[in-house]
Amino acid sequence: MFFHQLCRALHVYQPMGPSILISGKCSCGLVKMTLSLPSELSNYSPRACDCDFCMERNISYISHPEGSLTIQSKDKLLPLQQGQKQASFLSCIHCNDVVAVVRKFGNLNKGAINATLLKDFHQMKEPQIISPKLLPAKEKVERWNSLWLTVKIEYVSNM
User: Fold this and answer.
1) What is the four-CA torsion angle of 147, 64, 72, 115, rounded to 10 degrees?
2) CATH number for the domain including 77?
3) N or C terminus of the chain: which is more exposed, having fewer CB within 10 Å?
4) Which residue segment(s) compose the domain that 40 sits in?
């Protein structure tokens, strides 16, 4: 029990397995995220999409195919669509922060987290500008499937 309390206080820790856990939350704090990555956050460079939607919201994404993301919210998340409507941008209904982008692949939700909402975002390398709008729709989806992490969404009554 003490180990888990200490880990929560530190926000970044290495559990028994090969994963590093990083916490994040939306601006109002009503949506919380736990990101699991195979190595330290300082090894990653977030991807900053150059579309109007992401640029207006100052979103940079991070994912890793061996990682996972758990999103906890008391209220339903608002799924926003844009561009070719191939993915959903999950947004807090209170502060409107986009917390992640997700898409269903078979029975599995995959996505990328808005890295700017991570507690230790400052530890990351400079964002890389990307232009997914230049990719054909099929190639874009294949790329997401190979790069994105698994996403679990939990609606909880007490937060």
Assistant:
1) -100
2) 2.170.150.70
3) N
4) 2-155
